[in-house]
Amino acid sequence: MVCTGCALLCDDIEVGENDCRHACRIGDAHITSTNQIDPMVNRSPVDMDTAIKSAAEILVSAEKLVFVGFGNLVTEAQATGIELAEKVGAEIKTFHTGIFDDILDGRVKTCTLPEVRDYADIIIFLGCDPMNTHPRLLSRYAYYPRGEKRQHGWEEDRTAITIDPRFSHTASICKDSYVIDPHRQIEFMDALMDALLSKVPKTAYDKKRILKLAGTLKKAEFGVIFAGTGAAAPPRDAIIRLMDRLNESSDFRLLSLAPGYNLRSIAEQLRQLHSRPTDDCDVVDSDSNSGGSNGGDGGIDLHKADCILCLGFDLMNSLPAHGINGKLIVIDPNETLTSRYADVVIPCAAGGIDAAGSAVRMDGEPIELPLIRESGRLSDVAILKRLLEVV
Amino acid sequence: MKLEFGEFLAAPECKVVIVACPDVFRTEAGLRHGKFSSEYRELSAVIVLDPTDMAKIEVKDSDLVEVLGEEGVVIVRVKESEKEHPGIGYVPEGAWANVLGAGPASAKVRRSQQGIAAIEDVYHR
Ligand code: SF4
């Protein structure tokens, strides 16, 4: 079975009657979760047909529509969601997809997770804490396992380093860590870039340590940066500049540690949509790399939207969402903070649990998601298709 | 008569930058017990402070503090940090951190006499 608890999409999960083997804490809780919701309209329970009809009515009468999320939908539901957005003239707002765009556009070098396991010798966790977000990353790929060219694993063959505003759990098991001031991340990145050119950096950070870090990075045979996508990570353009500088003297690849299990797939689909030769649709996609912004990225400000459709995305738990006044429609397998405030709630089966489908792992590998158990719930694809028929 | 903070004296404050951090146990509690459960609330309404900042506002580990952010106020429980990071308060990612504003957000912290509120009482649409 495959776990859809995060974008690692671990494919070695064994689900028994009462246990869930190999999954981490998040995976186990995700697979066994029973926090399901009933269909609701105006916070009162209704039947599914009524909820879908109410959602359709809101979608056709709204003028500034935004669809948010997509990271926790199977690929097929994402495609149907895009079709629905095109039909009703909605903007698609994905969060945390910026680095995927850079990778897909070929602006930075990347690699697969098995390549990390087999070849990586220097691993940087930049503005991320995978022990708390992608718990099996270090044990399956990035640090502990022996690989084809890394037979001695972490003890001798790999050096893992964190650069983060916090001495995180991941930092506590890495060989070195750099705790950076959350307001002076760019200063650190610029100082490191100077040090990579063997210049003494002009910075209030410890110059000797930065020069030592640059020396380590320059010796990498196969370096990998895992970059976070939230406010703890340096801005995306600073990450790309660092990658360019690193690749003048060594060999580094970038992978994005974003929330959600299928964000890479929506980034791929939206990229294809925009490269269609006769692309005359109104669908716009916009990304916020900060995870904390909700409108400064050129698209519709969520505060100005008159309808927000949350697709597998707990908006209120993910962004500072004060003062959002538009109608809220939620399609989600579980009860979320947003569903408590939504005008319409449509429960769906969860991808890879009670709905089969496919997804794209964080490194671009397509993964089939078989069904773990049957339930009576409609899949997100089926719900979006029904909405497509009636709008 | 002994004067208490909140009655006649203003509780001492310290300024911190709020940095939101992921927490695997909190994510697990949200999935297992739900986002409105007491388990999730206890793991979300937390601020990790440096001992020097805790001394400034005269609180100890597990005390409750009021965090006044750029966009809102929350009551959370203090956890004493094992590592030095004066001027920085780590709050688990999610609704409580979001109430304070987009990170890294500036905030003031002071001792509180009130308890931790349910998130639906903190977050208003
Ligand atoms: S690391 Fe991610 S995909 Fe793997 S078991 Fe944990 S939550 Fe599931």
Explain this structure.
The complex is a heterodimer of chains A (391) and B (125). In chain A, a hairpin with a 5-residue loop joins β16 and β17. Chain A is built from 16 helices and 17 strands. Chain A has two domains: 165 residues, Rossmann fold, CATH 3.40.50; 159 residues, Dimethylsulfoxide Reductase, domain 2 (3-Layer(aba) Sandwich), CATH 3.40.228. Chain A has an eight-stranded mixed sheet with strand order 4-3-15-14-13-5-6-12. A five-stranded parallel sheet of chain A has the order 9-8-7-10-11. About 4% of the residues of chain A have low confidence. In chain A, α4 crosses α13. With 391 residues, chain A is an alpha/beta fold. In chain A, 36% of the residues lie in helices and 18% in strands. The longest helix of chain A has 14 residues. Chain B is α/β, with parallel strands linked by helices and 125 residues long. Chain B has one domain: Beta Barrel (Barwin-like endoglucanases). In chain B, 26% of the residues lie in helices and 30% in strands. In chain B, strands 2-4-3-6-1-5 form a six-stranded mixed sheet. In chain B, β3 and β4 form a beta hairpin. In chain B, α1 packs antiparallel against α2. In chain B, 50% of the residues are buried. The model of chain B has no long low-confidence stretch (mean pLDDT 89). The interface between A and B is large, with 45 and 38 residues. The complex binds iron/sulfur cluster. Iron/sulfur cluster binds next to α1 of chain A.
Quick description:
Chain A has 391 residues and is an alpha/beta fold.
Which key phrases capture this entry?
heterodimer; A: 391 residues; alpha/beta; Rossmann fold; eight-stranded mixed sheet; 16 helices; B: alpha/beta; six-stranded mixed sheet; binds iron/sulfur cluster
